[in-house]
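Sample intake — GNAT family N-acetyltransferase
Collected from: Alkalicoccus saliphilus
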Amino acid sequence: MNKNLELGYVKQEEMEALNTFELPEEQLQFTSLPQKYEREEEGQHRIVIRKNGKPVGFLLLYTSDFIYSCTDNPRALLLKALSINRQEQGKGYAGKAMEQLKTFAAETFPGRNEIVLTVNRRNTAAQRLYEKAGFHDTGRRKMGPAGEQYVMSLSLEIKQPKSN
């Protein structure tokens, strides 16, 4: 685990930095900037990705009925709006954050057993990122603002070794 990279709830004093985030034009068709989520809604959890205490990325986790747009599992979390600030991209932060997400989600949301997300079929870079983190394609499809999306899933359950 990268000790200098951490996930946590957005603090009010971090909103100014998050509101300055920029994304390359080609990424804006697939995700949203953090400033769109300045006000937290019920069942929406704003998560910041920090490097050495400084915000470098952002994501949302939903526990509300919004999850049912992607899954029938009432114990799932829905991951949305993952972004890394433009000047921080290419440093592996998204991959490291996804590596930490399973543990963070299991500890922060006890009783939840799955993370689901949607990824645009044309966003192959994000698909590879999620697959590397252990997400798999569920076979479900959904239409999004930029076209067809794949629904992917990651189990939060710890597999116990089988005893003989």
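Post-analysis note: Residues 48 and 58 are 5 Å apart (CA to CA).
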